[in-house]
């Protein structure tokens, strides 16, 4: 359906027959990241107007899932993994390894000219930062965040997430 496809076109704009045909014809790759790390990244990039991480988290919780910004909205509501059969799922922290694997599976040449991804290097930094920022939150905020992202935590292997506890 290339005549109807533009970069701004969303899947929901097509009828069910068209959606099914498109999904069968594409290789579907889902990039996922721990929801708590997404919150930290969003806060660090200054996307919230809150002076502290704790108040930023409270703003996120107060906005609710339906009014959530795409930067912190639960992934399950954005990518619909129960409806779309993704061919690959790539976790933050493994982009370089996974990209090489995806290129080989697609029959494309894999060479040393792959871009340098910083996700692998920042994994340990995010671990330390997550611990620090998680300690700023109240017990109630921690419970509310776990509930806010409970579907993401159930759908994806975020076993080391601070929100999994």
From TrEMBL:
The keyword Transmembrane applies. One of its GO terms (cellular component) is Golgi membrane. Pfam families: Sulfotransfer_2 (PF03567). InterPro entries: Carb_sulfotrans_8-10 (IPR018011), P-loop_NTPase (IPR027417), Sulfotransferase (IPR005331). Keywords: Carbohydrate metabolism, Glycoprotein, Golgi apparatus, Membrane, Signal-anchor, Transferase, Transmembrane, Transmembrane helix. It is found in: Golgi apparatus membrane. The keyword Transmembrane applies. Its EC number is 2.8.2.-. GO terms for biological process: carbohydrate biosynthetic process; dermatan sulfate proteoglycan metabolic process. It is a single-pass type II membrane protein. SUPFAM superfamilies: P-loop containing nucleoside triphosphate hydrolases. GO terms for molecular function: sulfotransferase activity. It is an enzyme of class 2 (transferase). Belongs to the sulfotransferase 2 family. This is Carbohydrate sulfotransferase. It comes from Thalassarche chlororhynchos (Atlantic yellow-nosed albatross).
